[in-house]
Amino acid sequence: MKWMVIGFYILVVLVISVFSMRKTHSVSDYFLGNRSIGPWVSAFAYGTTYFSAVIFIGYAGKLGWGFGLGVLWVVIGNALIGTYLAWKVLARPTRIMTARLGALTMPDFLAKRYDCPGLKILAALIIFVFLVPYSASVYMGLSYLFEEIFNIPFIYALVLIALITGFYLVMGGYFAVTMTDFVQGLIMLGGVALLLFYVVSNTHVGGIAAGLAKLATYNPQLVQPFNPPNPLGLISLVILTSLGTWGLPQMVQKFYAIKNEEAIRPARIVSTIFSLVVAFGAYFTGSLGRLFFDNQMPQGNPDLVVPMIIGEALPEVASVLILLLILAASMSTLASLVLVSSSAIAIDLVQANFPGFSKKNTLILMRILSVLFVGASLYIALKPTFIVSLMALSWGTVAGAFLAAYVYGLFWRGTTRAGAWAGVLSGLAVSIGFSLYYGLDSGLIPTIGAAAMVVPLLVVPLVSLLSPKFSQAHLKKVYGISAPESSYIRERLVADDLG
Prior knowledge:
0% strand; disordered C terminus; mainly alpha; Sodium/glucose cotransporter
């Protein structure tokens, strides 16, 4: 039964991939679906990219175990800051400005906004290098789950998943991703509902009231969301996992690709509801993890908490659906990671610096790089480590490098080239420097990642105020209109949105 369901799902994905290859004729098709993605698909694409195996296997288990109900602050942050405000604040100006500048990628946007090809090269390298650990963390999460539910050895599960996602991506590109995201999103919503039902009704929990009462006997702070254990660590995780989406290229890509401005509002609403439901289901399950193991972490590995809960609490059919839930979310996340990373090299480094390199060859190179990226991720995933550490290091470094330069570049005409460079370099310095200084301490990496996002937000305006400004000609090219006109149109857009 389990193998039949998974086999059918994989077959559908492969058929979609082959079909999508026929519709993928250009770099824009492969990477952005030719900027023609509607609101519902955009919303589900955002949500399924946001939440992958990492949240269900790594974050939900470790954070739920450590913070109890305090982890629900992460849920609120993910839904409100990471989704609603991201769409509200960033989607429209990103769609408008990237279309005006003809920018397909984050490095391309930064280079054109700040008139600096060197910034594109650095940004492309950051993406390709530091999204590999993130992808590896997704593979690890899926493999733990396959091992628990199907009793497949970790390494075999890892290789199988890598082969499937590699084929899916190389063949179909963004069209394949968008065609499956809506179905994957529905699977995720249904799976979360099943997960919550079986977990709460399990004899280890005995209902919400009984479960929380038992949890309080282990540590009263675990059921006190306003007085959680290690509040600084919790705040850091809220910042890391919520504000981080504002600077991650694979998330921002969804704003580039949306069909038009009218699609933004419904996409914002749908993606926020989606994020709230999925994040709550994952983290609330994790917060009850101690009840299933009598307060003893299984094998000393927090990454095993949720897979073992699923294997114990859910019947076979439900566990297969949960596996599909996480597989669906993870394939969408992996697709976005690989597309963004392969484009960083093919578009931002090779095509940009070798004008004679044809668009057809660029598309071929992106497919080759997709295979290399999957292979590198697979290699890292085979090394023993904790999923949360890999994820936090990647998010903190990439978002820390890009967030300030990207956001200030959208909204503040006074952001200078030197300010952008200072933001990118300070984010890198904080994330990499402190992570190495503390020996990649898994307990400190999320806090370091959060600091890597916040510090550049202070550095960029300070350096911009002290460095040479851009000419009015360049600013008009970027923003398209003069400052007074910009203010007037912004006011009208806000009024229309509220109305």
